[in-house]
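Kindly review these tokens for lecture notes.

. . .
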Amino acid sequence: LTLVVGAFISAFINNVPVVVLFLPILINVSLRTGMKASSVLMPMGFSTLLGGTCTTIGTSTNLLVVSVAAGMGLKRMDMFDFLVPAAIAGSIGIAYLWLVVPRIIPEREPTLADTSPRVFSAHLAISEGSPVEGKSLAEARKKVDGAMKVTSVERGLDNFMIPFPSLVLKAGDHLIIQDTPDRLKEFERILEGTLYADDAMIAPVDEEHPLEDEDQQIAEIVLIEGSRLVGRTLSGIRFADRYGMITLAIHRAGRHPEKLYDEIGDILLKAGDILLVQGPREQIAGLKKEKDFLVLDATADLPFARKAPVALLIMLGIIVSAAVGFLPIAISAPLGALLMIFTGCLGWRDATRALNAQVILIVAASLAIGVALLNTGGADYMAQLFVALVGDTSPAFVISGLMLLMGILTNIVSNNAAAVIGTPIAVSIAAQMGQPAEPFVLAVLFGANMSYATPMAYKTNLLVMNAGNYTFNDFLRIGVPLLLIMWVTLSWLLPAIYGIGA
């Protein structure tokens, strides 16, 4: 059911937010049922890719191919013009994801386990006769191999001092330090001080008075595409001060988690990174309202949205008006966005953040590249090379070969690059062979959407890879058969639907 629903929604909405929506739900289900999250996350991600292939607005790749083809003089495709072949092939792909993939996908442990040691703040009182009395803070840290993290030093009543390395420690000073319970007790032993859980100084930390974490929570958060944190460092944005929590570790695809003592504050963040954070419950709850990351835990609440019926009606109006030909999607979609703003479903700030300058530039540049390839004869030249390579074969074989070539390119380069390069070539090949251009253009569209074989082929693959702790080989094992299934099915469907003989 999740695969079908995910595919259906992705036919009308960009699949990135769909994956972002389903990730916490599936992780919640896996935690409650004991099912491995890795057995459901990749199939869900691939099902959204299959669904996005069905309509002109399903993916940015579809929009690129349709726009470039229309810019070259072809009739602009309507929203559901290629729904039939995409839906048939997608159904077979979903059956594979449902029946076969759970049996062949390896079991993977979560990227960052909930059993990771908690980090606590505590007061270490310097006692008389301590080996660090009269020593600098730098010398004190050196005695514990530099691992002690001192956030401030309290001297006297409410007299907090900046923990400069040259600060000379005196008996009675309180070092406010953060670490795991075991390491805190180790610091207490080495420095011969007394450890307290807080500044109340009621009782030192021991078996009868352990460190408490009743108000603390650990959560995993994923940086999503378009997050303001991408390309910056945790220290640069003052993450701890801004959000009131500390970062215990960072997990990035293809790497081991980078631990607390690896200077994670200086790591340049990327989309798809998972941060293991700890903080008060109210601060964790506040993260769920942020649009820069996705909270991966079992307590994520779905917000009550009273404007949801209005938003759904507007979305339905956009789809229906485009489907019946009342308004082209290029007009109905902007009108729908304006209605979302005027009805209060979407704020102006959210609307401006949703405008991705990179995507707009890619579309504009792609149209220019397509026209340039056509006007300069570049498309004709590459089409001649392709036809010469396949030899004296049938148009159906050429369509199949073109689709496979695009499918390989999209997993190595990018889907948008494959679409931009392939569309003018497809139009020229069709003209040289005296065939209708639409099935050749669709071969490019379908091939450029087969981003299944590598994690870097599509942004949702990276999100799924991190959350499910998949490896590169997992994508090859699951994605290559899916690519072949889609290629073989569509290689038969396109010629059959458009009456192109073998």
About this structure: Residues 119 and 179 are 5 Å apart (CA to CA). The two ends are 37 Å apart (CA to CA). Confidence is low (pLDDT under 50) at residues 112-116, 254-262, 298-304.
